[in-house]
TrEMBL record, chain A:
The keyword Phosphoprotein does not apply. The gene is atpB. It is found in: Cell membrane; Membrane. Belongs to the ATPase A chain family. Keywords: ATP synthesis, Cell membrane, CF(0), Hydrogen ion transport, Ion transport, Membrane, Transmembrane, Transmembrane helix, Transport. The chain crosses the membrane at residues 36-54, 89-113, 125-144, 151-171, 183-206. This is ATP synthase subunit a. It comes from the Bacteria. Key component of the proton channel; it plays a direct role in the translocation of protons across the membrane. It is a multi-pass membrane protein. It comes from Novosphingobium cyanobacteriorum.
From TrEMBL, chain B:
Component of the F(0) channel, it forms part of the peripheral stalk, linking F(1) to F(0). The b'-subunit is a diverged and duplicated form of b found in plants and photosynthetic bacteria. F(1)F(0) ATP synthase produces ATP from ADP in the presence of a proton or sodium gradient. F-type ATPases consist of two structural domains, F(1) containing the extramembraneous catalytic core and F(0) containing the membrane proton channel, linked together by a central stalk and a peripheral stalk. During catalysis, ATP synthesis in the catalytic domain of F(1) is coupled via a rotary mechanism of the central stalk subunits to proton translocation. The chain crosses the membrane at residues 15-34. Belongs to the ATPase B chain family. It holds the Pfam family ATP-synt_B. This is ATP synthase subunit b. It is a single-pass membrane protein. The keyword Cell membrane applies. Coiled coil: none annotated. Keywords: ATP synthesis, Cell membrane, CF(0), Hydrogen ion transport, Ion transport, Membrane, Transmembrane, Transmembrane helix, Transport. F-type ATPases have 2 components, F(1) - the catalytic core - and F(0) - the membrane proton channel. F(1) has five subunits: alpha(3), beta(3), gamma(1), delta(1), epsilon(1). F(0) has three main subunits: a(1), b(2) and c(10-14). The alpha and beta chains form an alternating ring which encloses part of the gamma chain. F(1) is attached to F(0) by a central stalk formed by the gamma and epsilon chains, while a peripheral stalk is formed by the delta and b chains. It is found in: Cell membrane; Endomembrane system. It comes from the Bacteria.
Amino acid sequence: MAEGKVDPVHQFTIENLFGTDHWAIGGFNIAFTNSALWMLITAVVLVLFVGGGAKRQLVPGRWQMAVEGFVGFVDNLLKSNIGPAGRKYLPYIFSLFMFILFANLLGLLPLALVGLHPFTATSHFTVTGVLAVMSFAIVLIVGFSKHGLHFFSLFVPHGTPLPMVPIIFPIELISFMVRPFSLGLRLFVAMMAGHVLLEVLSGFVISGTNAGALTFGIAALPSFLLMIGICALELLVAGIQAYVFALLTCVYLNDAENLH
Amino acid sequence: MPQIAQLATTYSSQVFWLLVCFGLVFFVVGLGLLPKVTTTVDQRDKQIADDLAAAEAARAAADAEEEAWRVAANKQRADAQTLIATAKAEAAKATDAALAAASARVDETVAAAEARIGAARTAALGEIEGVAAEAAQDIVSRIAGLSVSAEQAHGAVKGVLAHG
């Protein structure tokens, strides 16, 4: 990499840590990478956050209030999308929402100021894809165990004229099968795009500042101001994408739970 | 793009560690800690609902109590009014009777007194006549040296008294 040049996608590079690159199970490499480290940090922070708030006090403190707020938020999400039957999915949806939210937010921390490099696990489709497949698998398991083969009637909307069924059915089936891809890719793309944008703009700031006062004024300074705004936007996106992932999982679960 | 460039070498590690970490989150947070939070919230909601219901019941009871008190108070007031009215009527009747008896007694006394006065006056008049007749007899005998009889003197006095 040349002096002053910034590679905007270098931040997504996975590196093996602690010399674990030879770890394997059944021939599959399971090296402990920076991605794994940040997923583990996410999990530990999440456990500490929820553990600190699960105090069972009748009059909650601030921390307990925050945790109960998140739980109530996800609970309402399930209630409004699935109804009272949605309560049993609360552990999964809450874990999913909080894990994605914390992973997104931890990846945005400005730890580079102290020499650490935060890694956003949700900017890898290998990670978001597994989460999406998990949600999709739960939808399939619930749908088929609850409704059996009748679950296929999901692909024939109410009031479809009989001659249209052969055409509607494949369309609905394809739109159904695309769900895990759209679910996983949406999160991955949103997180990667934001991080790339921030990296590109920071490249402008560095190159513009190095190239002299004029480029500092017309390129570096505006880019820096834009970065501040985009950082705020990224915080918003981190929350929204976690919400969208959880919301769509709820919507899909509703299809399986309350077949039309 | 490392996501694609490193896909072949890292996918198994990514999937494995995601499952480990998400599994940790799901079992510790989702199944372990979350029920504590939800039961706490549910308990609090239930307590609030119970307290509200209790307050509502207490308010209804207080309203009923107040209504009963008002009815009782109205009844007692009406009773008191009738009591007062009868007492007034009885008192008026008793007063009338007492007054009638008293006035009858007074009338009687007055009549008796008037009769006594009339008798006294008649007696006094008779005495005055006698005294005047004796005085006239005495005066005549001293001044005129005449001896007038008692009947004559009486007749003269009577005539003078009658003419005033």
